[in-house]
Amino acid sequence: MSPLELALLCMAVLFLLGVPIFMSLAIAAAVTLFSGDVLPMSVIHNSLFDGLNLFPLLAIPCFVVAGTLMEYGNITQQIVDVVKQMVGRMHGGLGITTILACTFFAAISGSGPGTVAAVGTILIPSMIRNGYSREYASAAASSGGTIGILIPPSNPMIIYAILGNLSVTAMFTAGFLPGFLVAFAMISTAWLLARKNNFRGDESEAFEWRRFVRSCRKCVFALMTPFIILGSIYSGYATPVEASVVAILYALFVGIVINRALRWEHINKALLEGAMVCGGVLLIVGASTLFGKILTFEEAPQKLTALVMGISKDPHVVLLMIIAVLYLLGMFMETLSTIIILVPVLLPMILELGIDPIHFGIILVVTNNVAMLTPPLGVNLFVASRIGGVSVERLSVAVLPYLAALTASILVLTFIPSISTFLPDLLGYGK
Q1: Is 325 within the bounds of a domain?
Q2: pLDDT (average), residues 347-371
Q3: What's the pLDDT tens digit per position in 106-129?
């Protein structure tokens, strides 16, 4: 058995046994190294250090802390109040409000489950009180939360950019149009389901321009949040890591000085949340860097490229095969783990086929949205299920129309790459 076969077999067996991903990767790599003269043992600590010594990774815990602070600092509630005035009167108005609020909040947190928790905690109970079914309310929130990893800043995009040696700002720029496309597909689905089930809007939320302007003026600091965070990046005043720190400082300022809602215990919880997310990411990144060294030494990317191109050299066919694999893996693997493990193997093949790496990154991130809505590991389902008081099984059925809309969006993005590459090329971030 070759070292590559041994490494892949060990990893697969450990996955099936339920061993945590980072341990599966580390143990499989260690077994392979000990079994033969593959690489020197010094590669273990060198790889672990190289995997963790990445400056852009600092942005991930900082954006998580900022998003949590904004939730506790009443910023999320103010965003919801403004959005609700715009669409609250329509059929399924609260469902549409949920998805729009998720889109807006996604430009703050960069986390799918975090977006569901922040917006769903406010709007799922509100929908249930207004006569919406628990399934509809929870499905709208969990589906809207998928936009959290697509609209920048996005934690998976940061990881992909690091692994692919691409500009984080370029990936953020590429996420806007696909993010709005997915948001439109989700909103359309929520509206059609509400029409079918006769879930009416809130009649008291009739749009009045004067009242809307007054509400925007009152919530101006909350509404300015995404513009300050993203504006600091695209204006060149800050890198994504620096912008994540700006986000924390701004969240503290608005939460303490303007809204007067943040307390010391809220700050403690936000820091703990950031530390937990950061710890989990760093463990997987370090172990995957070690495992990736073995894959590279054994020429796994080249062998995979030869295998796939023996089936088809059509870029669209190859992308569709990758999407099918991602759908399957998403049922069992967390989003960041999937990206960290697959990118070093798939990216060389993508480049050889002439596919734009930014376009592929968007396809990868959007397809991983599906993983958040598919059991047994659909994290958004578990968050929304707990908030809405509905079983995961019933919620899994309720999100099927949203999964269909998301799949249609993925196919559109696959066959029209300019949706992903237009803005990066326009702003000079493309190839």
Answers
A1: yes
A2: 88
A3: 666 656 676 777 777 777 887 787
Which of left, alpha, beta for 74 (phi over 0: left; psi -120 to 50: alpha)? left
221 in any annotated domain: yes
Q: Crossing angle for the helix pair 59-72 and 93-109, nearest 10 degrees?
A: 140
Longest dimension (CA), the chain: 74
Residue 389 pLDDT level (bands cut at 50, 70, 90): confident
Residue 320 is encoded by which pair of tokens? 């569709």
∠ CA 221-227-229 to the nearest 5 degrees? 95
Contact (Cβ atoms closer than 8 angstroms) between residue 191 and residue 91: yes
- Residue 314 CA to residue 301 CA, distance in Å, equals 18
Cα separation, 359 vs 351, in Å, equals 11
Residue 159 has pLDDT above 90, yes or no: no
Look at residue 292 and tell me if it is in a domain: yes
Q: What percent of the chain stands above pLDDT 70?
A: 89
Question: What size, in residues, is the chain?
Answer: 431
For 347-376, the DSSP string reads: HHHHHHTT--HHHHHHHHHHHHHHHTTSTT
Nearest to 323 by CA among 404, 416, 421, 407: 407
CA 400, 334, 388, 102 torsion-angle sign:
negative
Number of domains in the chain: 1
H-helix or E-strand spanning residue 342:
helix 335-352
Question: Which parts of 175-299 fold into alpha helices (H)?
Answer: 176-197, 209-218, 220-223, 225-234, 240-253, 264-297
| pLDDT tens-digit map of 286-319 | 777 787 778 777 777 677 777 777 788 888 998 9
Full residue range of the structural domain in which residue 168 is found: 18-33+40-426
Residue 65 · residue 273 · CB < 8 Å: yes
- pLDDT confidence bin for 386, thresholds 50/70/90: confident
Asked whether residue 13 is domain-assigned, the answer is no
Q: Given the structure tokens 């509100």, which residue do they identify?
A: 126
Please say whether the dihedral angle defined by the alpha carbons of residues 69, 72, 76 and 81, taken in this order, is positive or negative. Answer: negative
Residue 402 pLDDT level (bands cut at 50, 70, 90): very high
Give the span between the Cα atoms of 339 and 79, in whole angstroms.
31
Is pTM beyond 0.90? Reply is no
Distance, CA of 200 to CA of 89 (rounded, Å): 8
Find the angle CA(219)-CA(221)-CA(223) to the nearest 5 degrees.
70
